[in-house]
Amino acid sequence: MSNKPRKMTLEKKHNLTGWAFLAPAIFLIAVFSFWPMIKALVLSFQTGKGTNMQMAGFTNYIRMFQDDVFIQSIKNTFFYFILQVPIMLAVALVLACILNKKDLRFKGFFRTMIFLPCTTSLVAYSIIFRSLFANNGLVNYVLVNFGILDKPYNFLTQPFAAKMVIILALLWRWTGYNMVFFLSGLQNIEYSVYEAAKIDGASAIQTFFKITVPLLKPTILLTAIMSTNGTLQLFDESINLTDGGPANASISMSHYIYNLCFKYVPNFGYAAAMSFFILLLVAVLAFIQMRVGDKRD
Amino acid sequence: MIKKMKNIGMYAFLILVTFISVFPLYWMVSASTNKSVDVSKGVLSFGSHLGENLKNLLANQDVGAALVNSFKYAILLTIVSMVICSLAGYGFEIYHDKAKDAVMGVILLAMMVPFITILVPLFQMVAKMKMLNSTLGFILPTVSTPFLIMMFRQSARSFPHNIIEAARLDGLSEIRIFFQMFIPTMKSTYAAAMTITFMNAWNSYMWPKVIMTQSKSMTMPMVVANLTEGYVTDYGMLMLAVLICTLPTALVFFILQKNFAEGITGAVK
């Protein structure tokens, strides 16, 4: 950098301008994403309260796998993940295919209505579902009045039912969101491909599995990774819909970590170890999905 | 005949999904105009209790302050975020070389980092910088996001290079090319990015819950969540709060809807 600015070649000048464009963004990501991540890693090997922290090796990591609530939260998160993500992506894909049909009427109307749930905040829809499924909520009212139940069923205080309500809520909120990604992916597929398939006598189901799914693979991969990421970090729903209850039966991993940091007596080191476990899970699952996604080529 | 049956099945499916999507929202609106007892009795029509619910809500929580806070945080975050992320996305694409592409790869890794992982150190940092309960504390951690940078980089790819060359020959500085040429042509990308950022900022819950320790700094979602504490829930009042919390993001979406779809399409390509 000994050259005076006026002596710089044009290429060098543009190179520096480029870095100047990037500088604020890179600085902020480094300071507010990567630096805290390194600090969290260090923290995860420490125990203690407040500023009085000591190195403790792998104690936190060993302890968390003996922690019943943490094990429960992992099980819950995987329960949500395994049930919700495939159903949601399948329904979203089918909806996108229908809405992509050339001769469909009221396309814009259906698309907007199905996307509508995505405009609600996570807290807001959690509370709507909590109210709908409450003991004196609308769902119970309907079930009792139609004679399906004798008396109100308390969905949110039954371990299995509470988890199912969370899954229903997640499906409601996110299906339309994923549908939009599929719709824009479908627009990149030439219509003539479908016409050729039709002439060759392919059925709708064959067209779907032999043309749509393979050509949409990048979008499917993207939505799968985003949904996995989101489900593993589930927080707002767990805290506002069921409050993790009954007795931690529906608590998510992030919710438990939050409780450890800000609700109970703070144990930052232990919480950091758990949060690193989530980071690891996100990375491993994304890696598996990319491998599976590549294989079908 | 079979085709007709198929069509009917298809429309029936769409109508069913539409009903499921819209019904909880309709219920929210109707409940906000009814007495809590009537809501529990399954009344689905609009009532005349809206004013009463509003009075109860305002007496219960400082909704005005929460709304002002939420708007302030979300709007500022959106504006600053647009400037920083679009500058970076443009820079990564237009001036790209090996070093910058490598940096982009590292930045994309940050997308994978769960927020809960950095929550505690971030909280400690913000507390140390005396930024608890402040707009800056709310904004800084999420103002520069890999997702938006990627989105703007993608859209810069379709920005014709000969425009840049022509502008350079005309003697426009690099930063002016960005502001006068790039921004006006990328309106739909900006609209989509603004919609996403505003919605995320308005709806964010974990971070404000951690750093907004005083009630006067609370956001709208926090206020809504607070309303469910206690033994008896006033559904009319609660749903009115949920409605107030939902309206701004719904409005932003409807205003920018057309651009939103175009912008997303550009980003996925």
TrEMBL record, chain B:
It is found in: Cell membrane. The chain crosses the membrane at residues 12-29, 71-90, 102-123, 135-152, 235-256. Gene3D superfamilies: MetI-like. It comes from the Bacteria. InterPro entries: MetI-like, MetI-like_sf. Its main location: membrane. SUPFAM superfamilies: MetI-like. The keyword Transport applies. GO terms for biological process: transmembrane transport. It is a multi-pass membrane protein. One of its GO terms (cellular component) is plasma membrane. Pfam families: BPD_transp_1. PROSITE patterns: ABC_TM1. Residues 67-256 form the ABC transmembrane type-1 domain. Keywords: Cell membrane, Membrane, Transmembrane, Transmembrane helix, Transport. Belongs to the binding-protein-dependent transport system permease family. This is ABC transporter permease subunit.
